[in-house]
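Quick look at the format.
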Amino acid sequence: MDDYSFRPGGSLKLKGDRKKKKKSRTEEERAIAHEEAQRAIRAAEIAEREQAARSVSREAGDKSGSAAEDGEETSSGTGKKKKKTAAEEKFDKIQEERRRERAKKNALKSHKDRVAEFNASLDRLSEHHDMPRIGPG
């Protein structure tokens, strides 16, 4: 038997490292978790609809609403939020449109297309260590 013939297998076992056993879930627990997830999704959709309705009413020029409707008060009602100016709102709207356009453009490309486009752009660039020909020959 050679000195190097013994090779222990498996992963390195650290002192004090306790493996946590994964708790098996029953069918009822899975159903409850699924229902909670569905409830959370519905709540998010409702909040999104309310926010969209608020932004539509704000864009329509509904400035006569109360301070709470305009978003000037916080949820606790003690402080006031800083109201955005028209220029800030326009800037945010344009930025959001640009993000959507960029996402649409990137969603249409596959990874292969992105790599091909990147390689083409690299081919167009000159390399910094390429020396132009100098002199005769």
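Next, a different chain entirely:
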Amino acid sequence: MRQRLAIIAVAAILAGCQMLPPMDTGTRRIEVREVTPETPQEPGRVPRRVAFSEAEYRALPTQGTARLSGQLFYEAPSGRFYGRHETIAIAPVTAYSAEAAEQALAGRAVEPADPRAQAYTHRVRTDGEGRFEASQLPPGDFYVSGSVTLPDGRRSPLILHQVRLRNGQTTRVNLRR
């Protein structure tokens, strides 16, 4: 069940999004390898082209004292809808996750993420007003995403922002679209 929720959360990240412009992180080299899908492709999803890099993920910090807080809501012509009791995903920015974010910006979803990448994604639930808070996060650049259940039962487009977390600091983000 937990793995299924993780897959759903990652799929939500890939469904469509809004993102802040990338933050300047200096020059860094990223190795991108082409991969061939080994499992049947899900309808409506594009195959991944960037392979999961164990080395890139292994180099990520796994512990920290960074905090993230914010609120999830969707602005529609009929009003503002808060993301009540929704899941917020906080995934590190890597070549692998960047591919999914880029596809989402283009309105396409990629295949579900490798379970090894999902292990690095932090998740929190929003309260009844769409507010969320995560603590003990490692420092670094992250994609923060979620979507809102609308009154008619449909889901809003994915809302995604990129943030930089620092140890000992609280970063605030309003996930809104």
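The helical segments are 2-14, 54-58, 95-105, 115-118.

See the schema section for token definitions.
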